[in-house]
Write a structure and sequence with these properties.
Elements: H1 6-20, E1 41-44, E2 53-54, E3 64-69, E4 75-79, E5 85-89, E6 98-99, E7 105-109, E8 116-119
Parallel strand pairs: 1-3
Antiparallel strand pairs: 1-2, 3-6, 4-5, 4-7, 7-8
Length: about 140
Amino acid sequence: MRTISVPALIASALVVIACGSGGGSTPTAPSSPSSSTGTPTIVVNRQNGSLSFSPNPAAFGGQMVVFRNADSVLHRVQLNDMSVDTGDIAPGATSRAVQMPVGGTNYHCALHPDMVGAINASGGLPPPPCEGVYCATAR
C-alpha cells in the first residue's frame, strides 16, 4: 500500500480549494446584445400604430440602427419592402444593427402588424409615402 505524507496531502488540498474558488473572481451572466456607442436606437413599446416606436419618424436614413424591445412581449421588425428583418427581439433585448435606406423607409412589427414606423431620408427629408397592407393602420 502506498502512503502519502501529511505535507503533500495539505498541499494538494490547498490546490483543489484554490482552483475551485475561481481565483476570487465572480462569474457574470451573459448579457443581451446592446447598441454600440453612437448607433442610433429605436425603442419598441407596444402601442397602436405609430406610437409603438420611438422616435417615429426617426431621422436615421442611411444609418445603422438597432431596435431595443422595452416591452414585455416578443417583437420582430421588418421593413415594408422586406429588405431588412431584425429577427425576433426578446423583451429587454436589442436587435443586431441593421442598415436603413438612404431614401428613408417604412417598417412594421411582423408579429403585431398594427405597429408601424418610418425612417426619414438622409438630409432630413420626410420618409417615402407608405404603401401596402401595413399602411392602413398607420399614423
